[in-house]
Amino acid sequence: MTFDPALLNTFMLILTGFGGAFLAALWIALVVWTNRDIRKRARDPLVHILATVLVILLNLPGVLVYLILRPQYSLEEEYQRTLEEEALLQAIEDQALCPGCERRIKDDWQICPTCQTKLKKACLKCGKLMELAWNICPFCGTPVPGVRKEGPAEEKVQASPEEQAEDGGRKPKRDSSK
To answer: Per DSSP, what are the bridge partners of residue 136?
Structure first.
């Protein structure tokens, strides 16, 4: 069996053509991938251009240099990370603190276990917790003992029967001493 040198030459030419086309496609794919990747990782247009030119000029070694120098996280990952950090900080800040000792307390505590500061009071009728400054229970409407049932609205002064006869009994007089 003898090999025809022309056939071997044709085979090598085809193999070289496919190999060259593969390397050209790989080079173009690496340039496109680098361009897309750097756009996900940086906002600066100059960095986009420099990373792409690096891979265009150096091909595979340029990709290796780019992989070493590229930002670790994409812009989306950085944004998600920032959101997570803000959510954690917000959760920490939202926890209630004792006004006496500044330690964290729970919303359903009546007294701080550390410094024994009174935090909330219980409604006498329904037993639910309410803030110390509240004068009426928001759950059942029961006023706190020792508090006037009328709010800080204007006090009504009853007119004498003679004044009611003069006014026709329409309007009570207001206290002008305030």
So the answer is: 143
- Quote the pLDDT of residue 167: 52
User: 105 is in which domain, residue-wise?
Assistant: 94-145
d(CA 36, CA 102) in angstroms, rounded, equals 50
Residue 115 resides in a domain? yes
- The full DSSP string for 129-176 is EEETT-SB-TTT-PBPTTS-SS-SSPPB-PPPHHHHHHHTT--PPB-T
Inter-residue contact 37 to 70 (CB < 8 Å)? yes
pTM above 0.70, yes or no: no
Does some domain include residue 41? yes
Q: Are 55 and 63 in contact (CB under 8 A)?
A: yes
- The H or E element that residue 19 is part of is helix 5-41
Dihedral of CA 107/109/113/116: which sign?
A: positive
